[in-house]
Every structure is written in structure tokens, then in C-alpha cells.
Amino acid sequence: MASLRVPDLPSQRSLRASATLGLGAGALLALGIGAAIGHAGGLGPAFPLTAALLFLLGAAPLLALLPRWLPGRRFGRANTVTATRLAFTCVLAAALVAQPWSGALAWSLVALATAALVLDGFDGWLARRYREASGFGARFDLEADALFMLVLALLVAAVGKAGPWILLAGLWRYGFVAAVLLWPALRRPLPPSGRRKAVFVVQAVLLIACLAPSLSPLLAPWLAGLGLAALSASFGLDLLWLIRNRSTT
Q1: Which of 22, 130, 149, 162 has its CA 20 to 30 A from that of 74?
Q2: C-alpha neighbours within 13 Å on the C-beta side of residue 206
């Protein structure tokens, strides 16, 4: 397979500067939204600082991947939206240590998670609209989705709306990757599928609904379990396809 072309030094510098600006804005966004939500929920200054720190920890490794995986000199609109979604997810993750939640905090997190999910379809549209599609952007979007799902599952478990089994919703993606790494014969691209995105959205919507204070604790496990069943079936179908089409060389 042909190796990816590494851009010249001026292009690398321009790209890194653009990415640093975009990711820096994401850190400030996490800090600002964390401060607003923390104020509404009666939390201290540690909450927004934790959200911003989580974002920086997640975003820093991206800079090392840029020259090889992202063409051009700019971070791009689509990747900036994905960084925004990552900032939202980091604020949600910071809420894991802010127990118990007030009603205002819970509804703020529901609204933030909903906004993150809505933006999930916007970055792909921007990439196609402005011809910014890249291997980096696709991977960034995928990992942002995986982290979002894991954080949602952790939040639902943390507030007691479902048992620890709901963590499987967030761990499926990482277990799938581990299986492919451990079985090299499965290392091949999956065919495009609208089913994956649809199931992801359904599971995310159901987990967000479980976070709503108004949802009955008796109903929440059933909704979470329904989404998990659909997600598990989707990953199972992909694994089955890879096994049936595994490399024999």
C-alpha cells in the first residue's frame, strides 16, 4: 500500500497553527460551558477546570497525527465542529464527579448531550460540502462518537438509571477494536452502512432520555436495555461480516 505523503514544512506549520487555534477554542468552550453549567448546578470552580483539562488531554495527541493524516494547511470547519462535540463530551464527563446532581444540573446535561448529538451529523455535512473529508477527520469523528457513547453510559450508571451492564454500550466500540487487533485476519474496511449511524443515534437518544429527571427509574433500564440490544446486534453483524470475509493470506 502506498505511504501517505507528509506535507512540506511550511504546510505542517500552517496546519499545526490552525489546529492549535481550533483545539484551543475547544478548550475555552469546555471551560465556558462548564462554568455556566457549574453555576446552574451549584458546583465550584473545579468543575469547568476539570472539563477543560479533560479536553486538553484528549486533544493533545491529535496534533501528532496531523501532518500525516490531514491534507492541506487548515484544520477545517468539519474538524472544528468535531472538536466542539469533544468539548461538550468533556463537560459531560466532568459531571461524573459532581454527585449528587441538582435538577437544574441534570437538565443542563441533557440539553448539552442533545446538542452534541445534533452536531454529530453537521461535521460530516461540512466535510462533504467544503471538500474537507480526510482520513484524520473520519477517525476523529469516530473516536469522538465512541467517547460520547462511553460517557453517556457512565452517566446513566452513575445516576442509578441502569445497572453496570449499561457500560457495555460504551465499551462495545473498544472491544470491537481490540478483537480486530488481536485477530489480524479481520483487519479490513467494513462496507458503508446507514444502519450503524442509525443504531448509534437510537442508543444515544435513549441514554440521554434516561438522564432526564422526569423519566421513571422503572422505565429507564428498559429503554437503556433496548438501545444496548440494538447496538450489540449491530456490532455483532459487523463482526460476522468480517469473519465471513476474513483474509486468508
Answers
A1: 149
A2: 23
Report the distance separating Cα 54 and Cα 90, nearest Å. 6
Q: Rounded to an integer, what distance in angstroms lies between the CA atom of residue 222 and that of residue 212? A: 15
Structural domain contains residue 3: no
Contacts of residue 145, Cβ cutoff 8 Å, sequence gap at least 6? 120, 173, 200
The CATH number for 21's domain is: 1.20.120
Location of C-alpha cell 476539570: 50
Between CA 77 and CA 59 the distance in angstroms is 16
10 burial via Cβ count (<10 Å: 0-12, 13-18, 19+): exposed
Range of the domain at 121: 11-244
pLDDT in tens, the chain (249 residues): 444 455 555 566 777 777 788 888 889 999 999 999 988 888 888 999 999 999 999 887 776 666 566 666 677 888 899 999 999 999 999 999 877 778 888 999 999 999 999 998 888 888 888 887 877 888 888 889 999 999 999 999 999 999 999 999 999 999 988 988 888 877 888 888 899 999 999 999 999 999 999 999 999 999 999 999 999 999 999 999 988 888 655
Domain contains 96: yes
Query: What pTM did the predictor assign?
Result: 0.89
